[in-house]
Amino acid sequence: MSDRLYVGTRKGLFELAPRRGGGWDIAEAHFLGDPVTAILPQPDGALYAALDLGHFGAKLWRRDPGGWREIAVPIYPPKPENAGDDPHPWSLGRIWALEPGGVSGRLWAGTMPGGLFRSDDGGESWALNEPLWHMPQRRQWMGVAGGEQPGISTVLVDPRNPADIRIGVSTAGMWASTDTGASWSLINQGMYNEYMPPDLQGDPIAQDIHRLAHCPARPEIVWCQHHNGVFRSENGGANWHELTAVRPSKFGFAVAAHPRNPDTAWFVPAVKDERRIPVDAKVVVARTRDGGESFEVLSRGLPHRHAYDLVWRHALAVDDTGERLAFGSTTGGLWTSNDAGEAWTALDARLPPVAVVRFAAG
Amino acid sequence: MPTVSFTSALRRFLDAPPAEVAGSTVGEALAAVFAERPALRGYVLDDQGAVRRHVAVYVNGLALHDRERLTDAVGPRDDIYVFQALTGG
Q: Quick one: CA dihedral A143, A147, A151, A153, positive or negative?
């Protein structure tokens, strides 16, 4: 069970430790004042934190036993003269997803404006995945809310085979590679995007995938919180079916998958989609334990009235036991559970807006 | 030689003391600074070598004209000042 919880916010990274008797306390604060966009705790104890300094760009830091040190960020190659029709910049906007590559030293970074980067030396250097970046279809990738740039919000690496990689793009569907990124294909069939023009609603590249999560023990089981619904795939994201039983609403950003049970996942629904507040101003978690046939609405310990918390894509996490959960909100709320979501405890703090929540590995 | 000065807001992240450097354009002068302090480059310029969107560069009190290629000419007594264009909340 994890004994560290990391919370990345608009103004710093907070390191939480379990409190005796339940709940968590803030043990340390790092990078106070700086926006944190991604966190990656590694089993060897290393901790990565991606910052978006706004004026001064995206930065990446790593904490080893010796302390924090700024390391390399992914850098886009020079934009060629003949790339004038590329609607997106060739410059790092934000590091949005940071995942271990399943091989010693390997990391994947999903970024805005849509580049996927790989490091084989623990983040000391990065290389753009050129095959994905040069796909002609990338011209059709669309920007996400709050920015004009598309972004890779999810990187899923098959725990059984590090060559098998799937990414979720906001907004450009789900892309898969079976050869460590040497070639890519757009795979997601069966989704629909109701805000698109009618003839594009079913197009895989038009799918507004907010977040993907797979079951680590059964990675062919993939869950998706999509802009207009919750979907599940049983074949690694190639085919999807909508889970219409989700309650109290089908809109949201985050999803967490149980580490071993392929039928269990958690979501944090909200009113779709221009309002983006909890249904009836009550914060709840939706959990399924039967593969999405039915959902339970979990609310014990969560705010019941006048709560306007929204939970972003990376701000819901489950640990490797499937028992500990945590989520943080745009209004700085943070709630944890030790019993798979049955009951929740609020952190006694008023945090900055929460972007990302992650448990330490192991 | 032109003088390059940086906003004190950078001190929170890394050292950026004022420097007198060789160069006949803003780009050359900044390149001379970055040769001494490579980590500073990514804080001021983007991946394509243009001035970051929310960074301002002034020469003798006037905004840099060419933010993409930094070709504005500078003379030995010119002051280049790098600071942040305020945003956010």
A: negative
Q: Which residues of A touch B55 (CB under 8 A)?
A: 55-56
B-chain residues within 8 Å CB-CB of A73?
42
Q: How many CB pairs under 8 A join A and B?
A: 48
Assembly ipTM: 0.85
Q: Is B87 on the interface with A (CB under 8 A)?
A: yes
Q: Using one digit for the tens of pLDDT, what is the confidence trace for A73-107? A: 999 999 998 887 888 899 999 999 999 999 999 99
- As a whole number of angstroms, the distance between CA A48 and CA A38 comes to 8
pLDDT band at A196 (very low <50, low <70, confident <90, very high): confident
- The residue of chain A with its CA nearest to that of B45 is A56
pLDDT in tens, A105-135: 999 999 999 999 999 999 999 999 999 999 9
The reply to whether A68 touches chain B by the CB within 8 Å rule is no
Q: Tens digits of per-residue pLDDT, A237-251?
A: 999 999 999 999 999
